[in-house]
# Entry
Amino acid sequence: MNALVLASAGNALVWIVWVVAALSLLGSGVAVVSFSNPFFSALALIGNLGSLAIMYMLLTAEFVAAAQVLVYAGAVMVMFLFVIAYVGPRREEPWSGGPSWQTVGAVVAAGALLVEIVVAVGLQAGHALGGSGTVGASFGTPAWIGRVFLTDHLLAFEITSIVLLVAAVGGVILGSHTRRVDPGMISPGTAQQREPEAEVVR
Amino acid sequence: MSSTAMTAGSWLCLVSPLAGTIVILLAGTRIPRVAAGWISTSSVVVAFAGAVWAFFGVHSQSGHRGEITTAWTWLASGSFHPGLQLLVDPLSIVMMLIVSGVGSLIVLYSIGYMHGDDEERRYFAYMSFFVFSMLMLVEGGNLLLLLVGWGLVGLSSYLLIGFWHERPSAVQAAKKAFVMNAFGDAVFALALFILIAHSGSVAFSTSFATVTHLSPATADFVALGLLGGAVAKSAQIPLQTWLPDAMEGPTPVSALIHAATMVTAGVYLIARTHPIFEQARTIELLAAGTGALTLVVAGLIALVQTDIKRVIAYSTMSQIGYMFLGVGVGAYSQGMFHLLTHAFFKALLFMAAGLVIHAVANEQDIRKLRGVGRLMPITKWCFLAGALALVGIPPFSGFFSKDSIVAAAAALGTWYGWIFWACGVAGALLTGLYTFRLWFLVFPGEPSAFVREHFHRSGPIGEGALTMLVPVGVLAVLATGGGWLQWAPKWHPFTDWLASAAPTLAIAEPSSTQEYFTSAATVIAGVVGIAIAWAVYSERRIAIPHAPFLRRTLEHKFWFDELYAAIFYKPAELVAAGLRREFEEPVVLQTGTDLGETTLAAGGLMRRIQTGLLRTYVLFLAGGAAAVVLAFLIAR
Amino acid sequence: MLGPGVAWYIALAGFLFGIGVLGVLVRRNPLIVLLSLELMLNSANLALIAFARHFHNGAGQVFALAVMAVAASEVCVGLGLVVALNRKRLSLDVDRLSELRG
# Structure
C-alpha cells in the first residue's frame, strides 16, 4: 500500500517534471527560431539543451545528459556566443525576405513532416511503444557506455574521432587569415603590380 | 649433341635481333647514334652465328630431319594448344643463314649509309626488328607462328618503307605496301583457318598429313589462299604494284627487305607448304604461271624505268618470278637455290647502287648519272659482278641457279612446261637487256656534267665509308662464286640438303641434256640481251625503236595502277562520298549535334530551379523527405 | 517505467524537429540557421535515446554521442564559414549568397 502510494507519487512527480521540461523544450525551440537577434536565439538554445538533458535523465541516459550539458551547453554554445559577439549584432525580421512561396513552402513542409511523424508514432507504432519494464542499474552509466563504445562500437568511435579531427582542421583553415602573397615567392615587380587584397579575395 | 646445337642455335638466332631491338629502344638517346648501328649489327651477327651453329647441328644429324623445339604452350583452348615452337630443318636453316648472313652485311652497310640521318637509332631498331620478324617467319614451328612472322614482316616493312616519314611519297608507299600485303595476309589467314579447321591442328606435320584427305576443292582453296599470301608478299602479278613504290625507303632497306629476304618469303612459303600444293597441282602450276608472267612483264617494265632503284626493283620482281616458276613446277630446291644466289647478287646490286646514290647527292635518275664508274671504280666492278650474276653469265652465280629452274620447266614436257621454258629464256634476254641498259647508262664513259658537279668523295678510298665497302666486297665475292655450290648436272649438294624438307618432284627433274640445252639457250639469250643493250645504249648504233603506244604502256607499268584505281579506288571513293553525304553527315554527325542541343535545352529548363538560394534547396530537401516518409506510411 | 511512455518522447522529438525545419527554412541569418540545425539534431538525439530506453539497447545512446560529435564538427565548420564570410565583408544573409545559381 505504502509502496504503491510511493510509486504513484513518483509517477506523478516524473510526469510533472516531464511536462515542465517538455514545455520548456518546445518554448525554447520556438524562441530559437523566432528571435530576431541571434544572441537571444543562442541563449534560448542553451535552455533548450538543458531541457533535453532533463529528458535524457528521465530516459536513464545519465552519461549522455552529462555530455549534453558539458559539450553542448558548455563548449559549443560558448563558441556560438563568441562568434555572435565577434560578428556583431545583426537583426533580421524572421518572416521576411526571399520569394513569398518560400515561407509558405517552409510552413507546409515542416508541418507535413511533423504530421507524418506524429501519425507514424501515434497511429501506427504507438501500440508497440507502450510501457516497458525497468532496465538494469548500469544502463546509461559512464562505465557501461565506455565499455560499449570501446567494444561493440569501436569502429564508429574511431570514425567519429576522425570526423572531429577533419572538422577541426577545416575550421582552422576557414577561420585562418587570408593567405597573403609571400614577397619571397615572386619577384618584387609583380608583387607591386598586384592589387594586394582584392585578387586573393576573389 | 646435335639436338642441343639445333635448339640453342635456333633460339639464339631468333632472340638475338629482338634483344638488339629492345636494347636500342630502351637505351634511347643515352647511347650515341653510331652505337645503335653497332648494336644492331652485332645482334644480327650473333643471329648468324646461331644459324651456323644450328646448321652444324642439323648437318651432324642423320637424315637431316631437323626438329621442333617448344618453349611453352602459347595459347590453350580446349584441345587446341599451339606452343611457341621453332622448327629447325634444312629448309629453315637455309633461310636462317640467308636472312641473318646477308642481313648482317646489309645492317653493317647501313652504318655508313645512314650516317648523319636524324633518326639513326629508330632505323636500327627497325632493322633488328625486321630481322627478328623474318627469322620468326622462317623458323616458326607451326602454322600460327608462320602467320605471326608473316604479319610481323609486313609491319616492319611498313615501318621501314615509311622511315622517312617527312616525305609524303614515302608515307604513301608504306601505306600501299601495307594495304596490298594486308590483302595477301587476309587470304593467307583464311587458308590457314580452313586448314586448321580440317586438320584440327596447327602443327605442320599433322596438317600436311591431313591434306591428302581433303576434297580437291578444299585443297585448291587452301592452296589458293596460300598462293594469294605469297603473291602479295613477293610482289607477283597481280599484287606487284607496291614493290617499285617501296623504293622510297632507304636503300639498305630495299636491299634487305625488297631484294634478299622478305619478298622471297612467298617462295619459302610454297616450299614449306609444298605437300598442300602437291595436293592442288593446278594451283601450284598457277603459281608457276604467275611467276612466268611476272618475270616477263617485270622485265619489260624495267626496260623503261629511269630510277636506278626502280630498275633493280623490277628486276627483283622478275627474279622472284623465276623462283615462283621453280617452286611452282615442283623444283623446290632449285627455287630455293635461286633465292640464295639472288639474295647475294641483288643485295649487291642495291648496295652498289646505294654507293652511287650516296656519292652523288641522292640522285637516282640514271639519265643524269652517266659515267659515274670513272669516279668509283670499285663500285663499278662490284656492280658488274652483280649484273653478270643477275643475267646468268657463267661463271657468276645466277647462271647456276636460274638455268636449273628453266630446265625444270622444260622437264615437265607438257605444253605449259614449254611455255614456261620460253618465258624463262625470254626473261633471260630481257634481264640482259635491262641490266646492261642500266650498266651502260650509268657506269662507263665520261662523267656527265651532273656527276662532275655533285660527286663528292668520302671514306678512305673516296667511294664511301669502309662499313659500306666491306659488305659490298663480300657480297661481290659471294655473287661471283656462290653459284659453284651447286651445278645441277654435275653436283647438287644443295638439292640433297633440302631433300628431307622439300624434295624436288620427279616430274620436275631435268635430264642432263635438258640442263645443257637450257643453259645454252639462256646464256645465249642473256648475251644477246647484253649485246642489244650495248648497241642501243652504249654505242647508239641502233636507235631505240619508235613505238609510242608500247612505250607508254611500259612507262605506265601496263596500267596496273590505273586499273586498280579504276576498279577499286574510284568505286570505293564514290561509295564513301555517297555514304558521307547520305549517312554520315545527316545521321552520324547530326545525331551528335542534336544530342548536344537537346541536352542544352533540357539544362536550360533545369537551370530555372537552380536559384542559388540555400533555403530553396533545403526546402526541396525537406519536401522530398516528407514525400518519402509519406510514401513509406502509405506503403505500410 | 515511471512517467510518460516512449511514444510521448518521440512525439516531442517530432515537434522539436518540425520547429528546427521551420527555422532552417525561414531564417536568413546563417547563425540562426545553424542554431535551428542544432535543434533538428537534438530532436533526433532525443528519439535515439528514447528508442534506446525502449529496446534496452545501448547502441542508441552510443549513436547519440556520435551525433553530438558530428554536431560539434558541423558547428565548427559552420562557424568557421560565418567568420570567413564576415572577414570578407560579405553579407550574413543566406539569400545573398547565391553563387550556385545556374
User: Anything to note?
Assistant: Chain C is about 75% helix and 0% strand. The radius of gyration of chain C is 17 Å. Helices of chain C lie at 6-26, 30-55, 59-87.
